[in-house]
Amino acid sequence: xxxxxxxxxxxxxxxxxxxxNTDIPVLSPNEWKICRDLCVVLxxxxxxxxxxxxxxxxxxxxxxxxxxxxxxxxxxxxxxxxQDIVIGVVTKLNxxxxxxxxxVENSNTLAxxxxxxxxxxxxxxxxxxxxxxxxxxxxxxxxxxx
Length: 146
What we know:
This protein is mainly alpha-helical. It is built from seven helices and no strands.
């Protein structure tokens, strides 16, 4: 919605200029920039959400790489020259990501799924000890079946 709003910035400004009603709040150029910056910040989260919950059911193996990718995105966004308001949003998103998904690599089911997915294998993990433990666990499960 915010992206569509910023895409129509010139149309919205033109429409407000010709209206007789002066009660309509007008965004300053700084506020328009904040809206555009927020679109940049929120886009990776939107794409991740659509990937995880879209019509095509995603597998559990993609969850760990996507979450770890969002960590990297947040880290890179914190380095950019955004205004304080936008940096605050990035900080809150990063905190929420750590709160909700901070232990995602510790999920045995998701870890095994990511390890066994040929697209990811050990590259899916940020924590190498969890990757090694998951690998050992899978080997022991296979050995027990044999």
